[in-house]
Large ribosomal subunit protein bL25
Amino acid sequence: MSYTIEAQIRTEIGKGSSRRLRHANKVPAVIYGKGKEAVSIVFDHKDIIHIQENEDFYTSELTIALDGKEVKVRVQAMQRHAYKTLIEHVDFVYA
């Protein structure tokens, strides 16, 4: 199954801006990989909360629609809230 997530490039980085994004129901994330520059992104929490429940989400390639371009990635790590059903941050690697 293929998954597509709409995302935008994030210009403000840091703890404060990430907290503001989370309060606005957004998820801060980063895409990185060997030989490529890391890109900080943000997307809606509702876009990932249901698709991450599928097993193949963690093992298959995902498509991130990033400002008109499609980027193929894989999930590297995901940070969840301690007791709420919230995703706080996601690390992606270029596929």
Summary: The chain is about 15% helix and 50% strand. The chain has a mean pLDDT of 92. The beta strands are 3-9, 26-33, 36-44, 62-66, 69-80, 87-94. The chain has one domain: 3-94.
